[in-house]
TrEMBL record:
Keyword Chloroplast: no
Range of residues in the leader sequence: none
Record's protein name: Sigma-54 dependent transcriptional regulator
Annotated positions of the 4-aspartylphosphate modification: D40
Length: 453
């Protein structure tokens, strides 16, 4: 039977190791390279249940399928209580066993992904949680709200970590093994946004060559994060309100509705109450979104967190650059604490990354920080009033060239990610996109791979 299963599963494409006893099985398990165990309940003097217990004791345990010719309810209950993935009786169908192995692998993959996500959360926490009372309150609210399916609205200035909080809500919930799907509402026009969220049917518009499930449906039991919700057009707001109320979506071009089960978390850097008064945002949608509101304070209101965050980012750079002795001087920390950080935590992270990358010494002093942080002006190439105007000079062309260079530099530094490039230049995404299109710039201009918008 062992040899038969080896041939059967190898033909399907699996790498198979075999063991003829409890002891041999323990040695194979010790290699740490096993994803699924298939074991007989009877192993001569040994027992498949002992193999199961050995497998379950590993730090990253494989799934275990037990096979027996003695299919009694008692044996099945004992195996499942001990942690077996499933139990199959002889004689069995080959296709049934192969399907069982496939599903066991899928479960293990989800479990491993979940473990990695939770590990990343522990590291992620340092990016946006400090010792300040305001952030401790935010973290407490996240812990309390995460297990529910309640819709959450995250508010705060750009760069305060709204997406990190959304991911934390997802990872601290029972949905952590399902997808977390972010959608930048400001980066998509009205038609594309509706198709992305709700899906579409074949032929509903030019280019719709097949049916496509929208993000709300395809996310399954996961979390859909609607970033920049304040940028959603009014006509789409009406549809989104109905979707959130009914928990059903109508794909573009379809006459029937489809239920969805994902949790919706939204975020905005705008004051939606002001947008409502200005007639740019629906009041009923606001009430539907802010069942629970998590408000992130700007970094200037929690200056005590700046040293903690700066050292956290520097620890990441130590590992990335292979320079374990990198550290800030006390004078540099004092400079950072005095700065108001209009770009918030994201700006601080960029400053730390720049200082660590460009510094020739392991001690990062004030001179490694941008001049603006030190209260100094950038040196001017020429004194005012001494600029020479060459023949045929065009101010418009000169400014266009300068704008293009800045846009390209920002794209290169942001790795092609347009939203981040816009933040580096202090522009809104829409303004950046307009200027980039005007100059014919694309994500590929620097020779790199295209980045997400």
């Amino acid at each position: 039977m062992r040899e038969y299963l080896e041939v059967l599963l190898t033909r399907v494409g699996y790498r198979v190791s075999i063991a003829g006893s409890e002891k041999a099985a323990s040695e194979v398990l010790g290699s740490g390279s096993v994803d699924v165990v298939i074991s007989d309940m009877k192993l001569g003097q040994g027992s498949g249940l002992n193999v199961l217990k050995a497998a379950r004791s590993l730090s990253a345990p494989p799934e275990v399928i037990l096979i027996t010719a003695f299919g009694t309810p008692t044996a099945a209950v004992e195996a499942m209580r001990a942690g077996a993935y499933d139990y199959i009786c002889k004689p069995f169908d080959n296709e049934e066993l192969k399907l069982l192995v496939q599903k066991a692998l899928e479960k293990r993959g989800l479990r491993e992904e979940n473990r990695q996500l939770r590990r990343s959360l522990s590291g992620m926490r340092g990016l946006w949680v400090g010792d300040s009372p305001a952030m401790q309150e935010v973290w407490g609210l996240v812990e309390k709200v995460a297990p529910s399916r309640t819709t959450v609205l995250i508010t705060g200035e750009s760069g305060t970590g709204k997406e990190l909080v959304a991911r934390a809500l997802h990872l601290r919930s029972t949905r952590a093994g399902a997808p977390f799907t972010p959608v930048n509402c400001a980066a998509l026009n009205e038609g594309v946004l509706e198709s992305e969220l709700f899906g579409h049917v074949k032929g509903s518009f030019t280019g719709a060559q097949t049916d496509r499930a929208g993000i709300l449906v395809s996310a399954g039991e996961g979390t859909v994060f609607l970033d920049e919700i304040g940028e959603v057009p009014m006509s789409t707001q009406v549809k989104l309100l109905r979707v959130l109320q009914e928990r059903r979506v109508k794909p573009v071009g379809s006459s029937s509705e489809v239920p969805f089960h994902a949790r919706v978390v939204a975020a905005t850097n705008k004051r939606l109450e002001v947008e409502v008064k200005a007639g740019r945002f629906r009041e009923d949608l606001l009430y539907r979104l802010n069942v629970i509101t998590v408000d992130l304070p700007p970094l200037r209101e929690r200056k005590g967190d700046i040293p903690l965050l700066a050292r956290h980012f520097l620890a990441q750079m130590r590992e990335e650059l292979g320079r374990p002795n990198l550290d800030f001087s006390s004078a540099a920390i004092e400079v950072l604490e005095r700065y108001p950080f209009p770009g918030n935590v994201r700006q601080l992270q960029n400053i730390v990354e720049r200082a660590a990358t460009l510094s020739d010494t392991d001690v990062l002093g004030p001179d490694t920080l941008p001049l603006a942080l030190r209260g100094e002006r950038e040196p001017e190439a020429q004194a005012a009033g001494t600029v020479e105007l060459p023949t045929g000079f065009s101010l418009e062309r000169y400014l266009d060239d300068a704008e293009r260079r800045y846009l390209l530099t920002a794209l290169q530094r942001a790795g092609g990610v347009k939203t981040r490039a816009a933040e580096l230049l202090g522009l809104s995404f829409r303004s950046f996109r307009y200027r980039a299109a005007k100059h014919g710039l694309s994500d590929r201009e620097d020779g790199g791979e295209p980045g997400p918008e």
